[in-house]
Amino acid sequence: MLVKNNVELLSPAGDLNCVKAAVQNGADAIYLGASSFSARASAANFTLDELKEVINYAHIRNVKIHLALNTLIKNNEFEEAVSIAEKAYELGVDAIIVQDLGLASILISSFPKLPIHASTQMTAHKLEDVSVLERLGIKRVVLARETSISEIEYICRNSNIEIETFIHGALCISYSGQCLFSSMVGGRSANRGKCAQACRLPYGLLQDDKLIDSGYLLSPRDLCGLDFIPALIDAGVKSFKIEGRLKSPEYVATVTRIYRKYIDLYLSSEKYEIDLKDRKDLLQVFNRGNFSFGHLDKEPNLNLVCKEKQNNMGIYIGNVANYNGKKGHVTLNLNDILTLGDSITFENEPTKYRVSELMFQDKNIPFACDNQIITIR
């Protein structure tokens, strides 16, 4: 008989509004960065005073806080990094996520009651990696995003350590944490929290000095793992991680809400079916040319890269039927719902427009449905 163990839903937070969005939409735990040594240095992150407020807010609501100190640490920075960890421990943080093995070793020996998690940037993607970290005293391993579901299952079955996997969000074109591209072209180290996202830039592909392809050739589509939740739970995964410490509170709320729904659905032993509206909500909040399954499947992912656009594409809502340049009116044949205040873009145009007026048969309306012909301004 298969026993379905409870799993943790771990949501990202770059500021206090994201923390609240995660808590109110069903997160079991939240991961966030301090003002130093965070792999997302450009996020707002949290001072120690703010961290105290966040921990109190979360713990009252039975939600855990994981602090990311997940950059490589220089010799002259160890004292500061350990000091931040010590203060976070005193404030009641539930775990610390670490990339640097030296820092992990010091924290394990100094704070034996504080769970230390191995960051995905340690690139643990096979049983031998996980076994070494387990012997070191690591409590949990965040597997590299390049690990397939069969490898994840094998690791879970043959280790006695908590396993965490990414379930949704942005992917790196290289092995997690091993990219030096940002440092080479931008002078900014991804392993120091300052990734320049060189993979999101346009490139040309040459063969014998002849251009054979161009576009965002190194920009992966985001991962959507809804279809893999049952198999990952059965495999023994302890925690499902949502990427997005640079994303908005709306993103955090939407993704957390939907993954909470489907984790609970499978654990309840009800029929596991995914509502198309939930898929669309995920696409609308953020997607790069639709989603992919990342590296979870056993088969190679031939749909990993979206070369047409490197940022959020939203959802397709319809075709332009007419444009009145004098009035600034655009007539659309709608294929989806459009609401006053929505932001839209047009194909091959970089500018984003906000719908300030929405009309149907010359009457102003608050929203329009699919299959309607409407005018916007």
Can you give keywords for this protein?
TIM Barrel; alpha/beta; Elongation Factor Tu (Ef-tu), domain 3; eight-stranded parallel β-barrel; 2 domains; five-stranded antiparallel sheet; single chain; 377 residues; 21 strands
What does this molecule look like?
The structure is a single chain. The chain has 377 residues and is of the alpha/beta class. The chain folds into two domains: 8-176 and 222-292, TIM Barrel (Alpha-Beta Barrel), CATH 3.20.20.380; 318-376, Translation factors (Elongation Factor Tu (Ef-tu), domain 3), CATH 2.40.30.10. The chain has helices at residues 16-24, 48-60, 78-91, 101-110, 127-136, 149-157, 181-186, 229-235, 249-267, 276-285, and strands spanning 8-12, 29-33, 64-69, 95-98, 116-118, 140-142, 162-169, 203-207, 210-215, 222-224, 239-242, 291-292, 318-324, 329-334, 338-339, 343-344, 353-354, 358-360, 363-364, 367-368, 373-376. The strands form five sheets. Strands 1-2-3-4-5-6-7-11 form an eight-stranded parallel β-barrel, surrounded by seven helices. A five-stranded antiparallel beta sheet has the order 13-14-21-18-19, with no helix packed on it. α1 (16-24) packs parallel to α9 and α6 packs parallel to α8 (229-235). The chain is globular.
